[in-house]
Each structure stands twice: as structure tokens, then as C-alpha cells.
Amino acid sequence: MPSSLRGLRPVFTLGIVLSLAACSSGGLGASRDSPYAPGLRPGAAAQDGLVVGHRLMEAGEFELALKSFTRAAYEDGLTVDVLSALGSANLGLGRLGQAETLLRRAIATDEAIPQTWNNLGVVLMEKGEVAEAEQIFRRAFALDNGESDSIRDNLRLALAKTENPDYDQVEQDYKMVRRGSSDFLLRRIP
Length: 190
What we know:
The protein has 190 residues and is mainly alpha-helical. Helices cover 59% and strands 6% of the residues.
């Protein structure tokens, strides 16, 4: 390199860097249309773990929802809402034993909502414990005053299976389908 250009080297390099930064859509900061998740905001308040978990359940992200509900359990303790949410996430993941344990703990309180009873009934139906599932669905139906179609449909299925144990093998197959944020329904497979 000629000696006359050696002094211009830092200025030249700085000019290239600044011109490249000006060409990007975000300048020296992050772009709003970036496909990447936003960074951390120091001092910002965290969202409620239950709210985030229910949104993730709606999106079918049961594993992430379980992590969010676990965070809610750490922050709020094992309330009836947290126990029900944890049980529903485990139900969505097909972890019937864990779901049953958590949902039974939730219904042991007086604060359990009908959907918690319904989800426990779905677990029992999936495990083949139809007689107990029928009783659980009856309780959910009574607590809900018969207003929920999913609870009514699940009760009908349990009653049909109680009267005829081979009902689903002869007539139709059913599977578990999530409705809403934590309500499950047994539906016929097309």
C-alpha cells in the first residue's frame, strides 16, 4: 500500500461500515419486520403464566403450555386453576397418569370448575374406566347446569358405553379433541 494512502485507512473503513449500516432496513437497531423474537426488555413486567399457557394450549403447543403453567405454579402456588391447567396440558400430551393425578387434586377443592371435572372424565374414558367416568361427567354436567355441549356429549358417550361396553368398537371410534383453552371433548373419528 502506498504511504500516501496509509493515513486514510481508518477513515475509509469507517465510511464502509457506516454506508453498510445505512443500507439495512433497521439502521443500527433491530428491524420491526424481523422474523426473530424480540429481545428482553429490562424492567418489563412478565405476563401471567396461566394466560400465556392457555394461549399456547389454543395453539396446540402443549409442551410449552406445560412450562408456562409450571412457571405459574412457581409464582402463584398450586392453586386449583394451576392444577387444572397442568392436568389439561398433560392430557393434551397424552400423559394420562399425570393428568389424572393433577385433575384429582384440583377437584378435591370446592373451587373446581365443571371443565376440570370434564377433563378428568376424559382421562378416565381414555383409560377405559367408563363407570367412574360416567359419574364424573354427571357431576360436571350438574355443576354446569347442562349448558356445555361438550360435557353433555361426553356424558352421552359414557352412558352409551356403560349400557353397551362394546359401543365404540361396533358403532364408531372416538378420540380426544381439545376445545377452548382447557376443555376436552371425545369426538367421532371421520
